[in-house]
Design brief:
2 strands; two-stranded antiparallel ribbon; mainly alpha; elongated
C-alpha cells in the first residue's frame, strides 16, 4: 500500500464514523431516557422563583450547557487531554517495556527468574486496563488512609501527579506486550554469531547491548508499543470515566448519558482518528523497517 493511501485512511475513518454516528445516534438515543453518569453529570432540576411560587422543573443539559462552552471548544480541550495521556502511555510503555524485556533476556538461561518475569508480564497483559484503573484507585485509597494523607490523587485531571494512575492503567498491557516481545527478540539476537564474536573480542556487555543488540530489537519493541497504543485508545472511555480524567472518552460517555447526538458524533470521530493515527504510525514503522 502506498504512503498516500495509508494517509487517506485517517480522514476516511473520521468521515465514515461521523456519518455513521450522525445517522444512528439520534435514533438510538430516542430509545432510552437520560441518566445520571456521575454526581452533577446528567439530568437535574431547575428551580425558579422563591417561596410559595417556587417551581422545580426537570432539566436535561447538553454537553454545551453542562460545560458552559461551545461544543467545538469542549471537544478540542477533551481531545488535548486524551492525546497528552496517550503520549505519556507511548513513552512510558517503550521505556519500561524495553527495560523489563532486557532484564528478562539477560536472565534467559535462568529458568526460574526468566519464567517469573515473563509470567508476571503475561498476567498483567491479560488484565483489562479498566480493571487495573479500578484496583489501583482502591489500592491508593487504602494506602492514603493508612498513611493519613493523600499519596496520589485517585481521580481528576492534571498534568502532574493526577497523571500517574491513568498512565499506569493504560500503559500496563502495552508494557507487558513490549517486554515479552523485546525479551524474545533479544534472546534471539544474543544467540547470534556476531554477538558471540563480540563477546570473544572482550567488548563490554553494555556496549554490546547498546550498539549491536538494540538496533535489532527496537523495531520489534516499537511495533509492540504501537499495538498496545491501540488497546489504550479502545480502553480510554472507561479508564477516563473511572478516574474522572476529563478527556474525549469521558465526554463521549457524558454525551450518551445526556442524549446529545452531536457531541457523541464528534467524540466518536476523534476516537476514530486516534485509533487510525496509531494504526498509521504502526504501518509506517513496518514500511520503514521491512
Amino acid at each position: 500500500m502506498t504512503l498516500g493511501l495509508r494517509l487517506l485512511r485517517v480522514p476516511a475513518t473520521v468521515l465514515a464514523l461521523g456519518l455513521l454516528f450522525a445517522l444512528i445516534a439520534p435514533v438510538a438515543m430516542a430509545q432510552y431516557l437520560p441518566f445520571q453518569l456521575a454526581p452533577g453529570i446528567g439530568p437535574s432540576f431547575r428551580v425558579s422563583g422563591t417561596g410559595p411560587g417556587t417551581t422545580i422543573t426537570p432539566f436535561v443539559p447538553t454537553i454545551e450547557t453542562q460545560y458552559q462552552e461551545p461544543l467545538a471548544t469542549v471537544i478540542a480541550q477533551a481531545a488535548v487531554r486524551s492525546v497528552a495521556l496517550l503520549a505519556g502511555v507511548t513513552v512510558f510503555s517503550l521505556f519500561v517495556g524495553v527495560l523489563v524485556g532486557i532484564a528478562a533476556a539477560l536472565v534467559r538461561r535462568r529458568a526460574f527468574a526468566s519464567g517469573a518475569v515473563l509470567g508476571a508480564t503475561s498476567v498483567v497483559a491479560a488484565v483489562p486496563a479498566f480493571f487495573l484503573a479500578y484496583f489501583l484507585q482502591i489500592l491508593f485509597i487504602f494506602i492514603g488512609g493508612a498513611a493519613g494523607h493523600t499519596v496520589l490523587p485517585v481521580f481528576g485531571y492534571g498534568l502532574d501527579s493526577h497523571l500517574v494512575l491513568p498512565l499506569l492503567a493504560l500503559s500496563a498491557p502495552a508494557v507487558a506486550t513490549t517486554a515479552q516481545l523485546t525479551a524474545i527478540r533479544m534472546g534471539e539476537v544474543f544467540d547470534a554469531d556476531f554477538i558471540t564474536t563480540a563477546n570473544a573480542k572482550g567488548l563490554l556487555p553494555s556496549w554490546i547491548i547498546k550498539v549491536h543488540v538494540l538496533p535489532h530489537v527496537l523495531p520489534v519493541s516499537l511495533e509492540a508499543v504501537g499495538s498496545g497504543l491501540r488497546v489504550a485508545v479502545a480502553s480510554l472511555p472507561i479508564v477516563e470515566y473511572i478516574l474522572l480524567w476529563n478527556g474525549i472518552g469521558f465526554v463521549a460517555l457524558q454525551s450518551i448519558a445526556l442524549r446529545d447526538p452531536a457531541a457523541l458524533t464528534a467524540c466518536a470521530a476523534v476516537l476514530g482518528a486516534l485509533f487510525a493515527v496509531s494504526t498509521l504510525l504502526l504501518d509506517l514503522r513496518r514500511a520503514r523497517f521491512h
